[in-house]
Design brief:
The chain is mainly beta. Helix content is 9%, strand content 43%. Strands 1, 3, 4, 5, 8 and 9 form a six-stranded mixed β-sheet that branches. 19% of the residues are buried.
Length: 339
């Protein structure tokens, strides 16, 4: 009776405590013919339960990570263009990251494939056995992680300027509409007016804007062009928009330079000259010969680097770097002797 009672008690104890032992943990061998030491059994059970469970988990662990591509479209409307643009589709993809546990040995940091293009034996692959071809997995905290597209957002984008005001011929309005995830945004890049949004945003990419006040823009960089440098070092420039700048000032920024083959070109003169806006500007560099860093040499080639800025209310006073004239060989004026 005593042996039978001990057997029943031990079997009941083993059944109850087995729930605390991992599925692959092994209980010590039980020899019921020699009797059971319950204290030793409980100690062994506790030790086994405390051991880490080395069970591979193939299911992905979803990281708290996602990002969204941004898709943007630019709309530029010139002074004589229609105030309404066509429609463009914007698409933004949302990406999520899936991670899978990695057993020892770990994959190389950085997510690079070892020689041969395969992971070490024993590595776990996502369901299906292959990583996506367009995204290489990266190693992070004992896991291999890779991005995959989750969803794609699409919106139509267009722009209309309501009650558009007069622009100068060289001016324009430039806007940018962007979609990032489900969110739309409108940005004024360079505009001749400050505009307010009267329609669009949220889930509507068909924006309508209206002018608030006039803004000064940069002048036309091609508004003033050199007509040429003469052999006696006289420069002529033409102003395409002079009539719009009547009563304002034009500042020419000039560098007279000597062409030195196979070496650095030298600068003879740097000068800023201010003129009332006019159709033509003429500069005689001989008038500033006393300021030259070196004398002009007959037969040597010279050229002018030139920029300009507008001073007044029509345009911003930004310096517009235009370029340089062609190279011209210097020919001094013939000397006239009196009788």
């Amino acid at each position: 009776m005593k042996t039978a009672a001990s057997l029943i008690t031990t079997m009941a104890l083993a059944l109850v405590l087995s729930s605390a032992i991992p599925a692959r943990a092994e209980l010590p061998g039980l020899d019921f013919d020699q009797g059971i030491n319950v204290s030793d059994l409980l100690k062994t059970v506790r030790e086994k339960a405390a051991e880490p469970q080395n069970v591979a988990q193939h299911a992905p662990v979803k990281a708290l990570y996602y990002r969204q591509d941004q898709d943007c479209a630019s709309f530029t409307i010139g002074a004589n263009d229609s105030p309404q643009t066509g429609e463009i589709w914007l698409r933004s993809t949302e990406w999520v990251e899936d991670c899978y546990p990695v057993p020892d040995p770990h994959y190389p940091p950085g997510g690079h494939y070892p020689p041969g293009g395969h992971y070490p034996p024993g590595g776990y692959y996502p369901p299906g056995g292959h990583y996506p071809r367009d995204t290489n997995p990266t190693y992070r905290n004992g896991q291999n992680c890779y991005e995959r597209p989750y969803r794609t957002y699409e919106e139509r984008a267009s722009l209309t300027i309501r009650d558009r005001q007069q622009l100068f011929p060289w001016e324009y309005d430039s806007f940018e509409i962007c979609l990032q995830g489900p969110w739309l945004s409108l940005r004024q890049r360079e505009t001749a007016y400050e505009y307010k949004t009267v329609q669009g945003g949220s889930n509507d990419g068909r924006y309508v804007v209206a002018p608030i006040r006039k803004l000064a823009m940069k002048p036309d960089p091609a508004g003033i062009l050199a007509q040429g440098l003469s052999p006696n070092m006289a420069l002529t420039l033409k102003d395409k928009w002079a009539s719009y700048y009547a009563g304002e000032q034009t500042v020419l920024i000039l560098k007279l330079r000597k062409d030195v083959p196979n070496w650095f070109d030298s600068t003879l003169l740097e000068k800023q000259l201010s003129f009332a806006a006019a159709g033509t500007y003429a500069v005689d560099f001989q008038a500033y010969a006393g300021e030259f860093s070196q004398k002009l040499e007959a037969g040597k080639k010279y050229y002018v680097e030139y920029s300009f800025k507008r001073v007044g209310s029509i345009s911003k006073a930004d310096v517009m770097k235009v370029g340089e004239t062609g190279k011209t060989a210097y020919q001094p004026a013939p000397t006239t002797f009196g009788r």
